[in-house]
Specification:
This protein is of the alpha/beta class. The chain has a single domain, classed as Rossmann fold. Helices cover 50% and strands 6% of the residues. The chain has 16 helices and 5 strands. Helix 8 crosses helix 9 and helix 9 packs parallel to helix 14. The chain is globular and about 60 Å long.
Length: 345
C-alpha cells in the first residue's frame, strides 16, 4: 500500500547523524512500536513519551525569564515530577541535564534532557515520541530546524477500534474519524513545511509485512546503518509503561497480520460513518473505501455528539493511570499559578 502523498527521499546528508528524531502520527497508529524499534538501534535512544511540549508550552509564561537563576531548574524539576518522566528507565540525571545545557529555553532543556539520557546508555543520538506533539510541530521546527520526522500512518478504521477501547481518546466511531483526520491534517502541514530529506512517511501495514525492508529504508533516511537488533525490540527487559494491551503487543515480535481488523469488528453502519467523515484522508493515504458514496445523516451526527461526553466521562472515571497523571499536572499548575505574578493570570 502506498500513500498518494508519499515523497521520494535520497540518502540523508551527513548532518542527519547529528539531528534529533521525532516520531509523529495519530495515537494507536504504531508510534509505540516504531519507537521501540528505533530504541533498539545501537546508536539511537527513544524513551517513553514525554508530553513535555503539550504540557509545558502552555504554562511557559509562568516560569518567567529562564535565564534568571533558578528558573530553568524549576522547569526541569516540574518536568521530572510528571507521571510520564517518572516512568523513564533509566531515570534522567538532573545534574547532568543542567550541566550540559546549551540554550536557556524549553528547547534547550529538551535537548539536554534527551541527549544526556541517550549518553547514559552509550548512545549518540536521541529521538522523541509523543503523538500529541504533532500539534506543536511549528515549535519543534523552531527549536530543532534540522530534525528528522518519521510519520507512521495506519488505516483510520483500525485506529478507531483501538482508540475506542483505550483509556484515552475518542469513544465512538464518529469522533474517532474526526480526530484521526485532524491528526493527518497537521501532519500534512508539517510535511509541506520541511525539505524532503527531513520527512518520511511509513505505512504501519508495510512495517508489519516487510519489517526489515521498511527499517532499512528508515535507516537510510536517517543516515544510519540497519542493525538486526532492531527486530529484537521485544526482548528489551526495560518495561514500556503503556496500557496493558499495548504492553502485550510490544512483548511479542512484529505481528504481521495485525491489519484490517475493522472488517470483522465494525458494523456496516460504523464503516459508513467513518468513511463519510474521513474518507478523503483514507484515500489520500492509499486506503480504499468499502462503502460507495458514503454519507452520514444529520440525526446520526447529533446522536454521536450527544453520546460522546457521557462516553468520555465514563472512560475517564475508569482511567486510574490518567487520574495519577492529571493529579500531578494539576499540582504543578496550581503551584505555578499561586507563585506567578499577577500579570500572568
Amino acid at each position: 500500500m502506498r500513500a498518494a502523498t508519499q515523497t521520494v527521499h535520497t540518502t540523508a546528508p551527513a548532518r542527519a547523524l547529528e539531528s534529533p528524531i521525532f516520531i509523529v502520527g495519530a495515537a494507536r497508529s504504531g508510534t509505540s512500536l516504531l519507537s521501540r524499534l528505533m530504541n533498539s538501534h545501537p546508536r539511537i535512544a527513544v524513551p517513553f513519551e514525554s508530553h513535555i511540549y503539550s504540557t509545558f508550552l502552555p504554562w511557559l509564561k509562568y516560569y518567567g525569564d529562564l535565564s534568571k537563576p533558578g528558573h530553568m531548574e524549576k522547569l526541569l524539576d516540574d518536568i521530572l515530577s510528571t507521571e510520564m518522566l517518572r516512568h523513564w528507565s533509566p531515570q534522567p540525571d538532573r545534574a547532568a541535564t543542567l550541566a550540559s545545557l546549551q540554550r536557556e529555553s524549553l528547547h534547550g532543556l529538551v535537548e539536554s534532557l534527551l541527549s544526556t539520557w541517550a549518553r547514559a546508555q552509550s548512545k549518540e543520538r536521541w529521538g522523541e515520541k509523543t503523538p500529541s506533539h504533532v500539534m506543536y510541530w511549528r515549535q519543534l521546527l523552531e527549536g530543532f530546524p534540522e530534525a528528522r520526522f518519521l510519520h507512521i500512518v495506519r488505516d483510520g478504521r483500525d485506529v478507531s477500534l483501538s482508540w475506542i477501547d483505550a483509556r484515552f481518546g475518542p469513544k465512538n466511531i464518529y469522533y474517532s474519524a474526526i480526530q484521526w483526520k485532524q491528526y493527518l491534517s497537521l501532519v500534512d502541514e508539517l510535511r509541506a513545511a520541511v525539505p524532503a530529506h527531513q520527512f518520511l512517511d511509513i505505512h504501519y501495514a508495510s512495517l508489519l509485512s516487510n519489517p526489515e525492508g521498511t527499517l532499512q529504508r528508515i535507516c537510510t533516511f536517517l543516515g544510519e546503518s540497519f542493525h538486526p537488533a532492531m527486530l529484537e525490540y521485544h526482548r528489551d527487559p526495560v518495561p514500556y509503561p503503556t496500557d496493558a494491551r499495548n504492553v502485550l503487543a510490544l512483548e511479542k515480535p512484529i505481528q504481521r497480520h495485525n491489519t484490517e481488523k475493522w472488517k470483522a469488528v465494525l458494523s456496516p453502519d460504523e464503516v459508513r460513518v467513518f468513511e463519510a467523515t474521513a474518507g478523503s484522508a483514507l484515500q489520500q493515504y492509499g486506503y480504499e473505501l468499502s462503502t460507495p458514496n458514503p454519507e452520514i445523516h444529520s440525526a446520526e451526527r447529533l446522536r454521536y455528539r450527544a453520546l460522546h461526553s457521557p462516553q468520555r466521562l465514563l472512560a475517564m472515571l475508569r482511567n486510574r493511570q490518567g487520574h495519577r497523571e492529571y493529579l500531578r499536572w494539576g499540582l504543578i499548575y496550581l503551584g505555578l499559578r499561586l507563585r506567578a505574578p499577577a500579570y500572568t493570570w
